[in-house]
Amino acid sequence: MRCPFCGHDDTQVKDSRPTEDSSAIRRRRFCGTCGQRFTTIERVQLRELTVVKSDQRRVPFDRDKLARSIRVALRKRPIQEERIERIVNGIVRQLEASGESDIASKQIGELVMDTLKELDPVAYVRFASVYRNFREAKDFEEFLGALGETT
């Protein structure tokens, strides 16, 4: 593993342990050249996923982008970071288990919407406002009205 500080490509693993949900391994590393310590995380990847956008562009699936969008929706909400990681891991597992390498961006968005709807109504509305591209207050009113009818 290359050192992120000095670029030396021979670092030592000092400690390894599974994450809380055992979905990854956290490794504490040490660079003998510059003396810096850093952490890496290893995850199992069942298959390479490609996201098919609405305009039919194909881009590699980015787990970090998924996690960022969920964190933005949950900003200042009473949800712990470990819970967010479990949510992201669960969505990624569902996508990998689907058996498809090409995943429609709409499918990912719907999985996130379903998850947030169960978890936190404010985060659900926040995510929906971006995902469904709300342009004015009327869009929020219609969405919240439909939300009220389903609960």
- N-to-C series of helices and strands: EEEEEHHEHHH
**Share of residues in strands:** 15-25%
Lateral strand order in the biggest sheet: 1-2-3
Radius of gyration: 19 Å
Q: How many runs of DSSP E, i.e. beta strands?
A: 6
What's the rounded overall pLDDT mean? 89
Distance between the termini: 50 Å
What does this structure look like?
The chain is of the alpha+beta class. The protein folds into 2 domains: 11-43; 50-150. It has 5 helices and 6 strands. Strands 1-2-3 form a 3-stranded antiparallel β-sheet, with no helix packed on it. It has a 3-stranded mixed β-sheet with strand order 5-4-6. Strand 4 and strand 5 (58-60) form a beta hairpin. It is elongated, with a radius of gyration of 19 Å. The model has no long low-confidence stretch (mean pLDDT 89).
